[in-house]
Amino acid sequence: MQTVFERLTGQESDRTEARNGLIHVVSLSMTKVADGLIDPKLVLSWLLGVLGAPGIFIALLVPIREAGALLPQIFLAGRLNQMKQRRWMWALGSAGQGIAAAGIVIAALTLEGWAAGQVFCVALAVLALCRAACSVSYKDILGKTVGQAKRGAVTGMAGSVSSAAVLVFALLLLSGFLQTKAGVIAAIGLASVLWILAFFTFSRLREEDSEPGGPDSAEGYWKMLKKDANLRRFILVRGLLTSTALAPPFLAVMTTGEGGGSVQTLGGLLLASAAAGFASSYAWGWLADRSSRMMLLAAGGLAALAMGAAISVQAAGLAQVPFLIPGILFVLMVAYHGVRQARSTYLVDISPEDRRTANAAVANLAIGIILLAAGAFGGALSWVGPNGALAGFAAMSALGGLAALGLREVGQAET
Prior knowledge:
globular, Growth Hormone, Chain: A, mainly alpha, single chain, 0% strand, 2 domains
C-alpha cells in the first residue's frame, strides 16, 4: 500500500498515511460512481418521465439535490465540531445516501405518476441532506489523515476512476443495453450498494481524536468570515466559477435545432462529459497540489475560452455539425473538473486544523445561495438565447480566474 500510494502522489509517505490515502481513494471513488448512476439531471428525470410523473416533480429534482446538499452544512458543522472521530459523520452520510437510493428503487418498482414523483422528491431530499453531512466533514477528515501536497492526487484519482465508470454507463445507455426501465433501476440499485460499501470502507480509516471547537452559532460563523479577507475572496472566486457548472446545459440546447437533438447527439454530449472527467481529474489534482491558486486561474480562463468558442459556433450556424459542440463541451468539462479539484484542495490547504469544518460550511452555504442567484442570472440572459447566457457565464469565468490571482498562496503567511 505504501508503494502504491507513493507512486500515486509522487511523495514519500508512512504506512498509516498510505493506508488512509487508499481508503480515501476507494471510498470516494465508490460514492462518485454512485453520484453518476443516480444523476438527477439525466437518470432520475428520465425515470420519472417513464413512470408518468408530472413535470413539476422533474423540475424539482435538481434544485432539491443542489440546495439540499449545500444549505444545511452550516448547521451540521456545529455538530461535527463537537465530534472526536469525525469520519463517522461522513460514513453515516454515505450510508444514508445508500438507504435513500434504495427507497427510490422501491418507489420505481411499485409506484407511478404523482405517487412516484412525491416519493422520489422526498427520498432525494434525504439523500441531499446526507450528502451535506459528507461534504461538510470530508475536507476536515482529509486534512487530518492525508498530508499536504498529496490531497489533490487522492481526490483526482477518485474523480478519474469514477469518470471511467460513468463513461461505461454512458456507453451502455447508448448501446441500448440499458435503455429500459429495469436497466436504469438496476443502476440506481448499484448506486445504493456502492454507498453502503463506502460506509464500511471509510469507517476503517485511522483517525486521531479531534479537539472540540469552532463556532457554534450563525453569529460565530459571520464573525469568522468578517475577520478572514482571504476566505471572502475565495468565496468570491468560487462563486464566479460556478458558471462552469451552470453553462453545460446551454451547450446541449444549441444542438436541438433542425437535425439536432437525436439520441446520437445526446450520447455524444454524455460521452464528452464523462471522458473529460476521466482524462483530466487526476492531472488537475496533481497540478493543484503544486499551486491550486494558479489552477483556479487556468481553469477559469479555459472555461471562458470554451464558452466563447461555443458562441462563435452558434453564431456561424454550425452548432448541429456532428462532434463540434460535444468537442467544446469536453473542453468546458475539463475546466469544470479543474475548478472542482483546485478549489477543494485550496480550501483544505489554507484552513487551520481547527477551522477546516467551519470554513467549508461557510463557503458552501455562500455557494448554495450564489448558485441560486447565478442560475437566475443565466435564466434571465437565456431569454435572448443560449448565446446570451453563455456570454454572461464566460465573463464570470474569466473574472473568477483573474480574481484567483489575489488569493493568498498556500504556505504564505496571512497579512
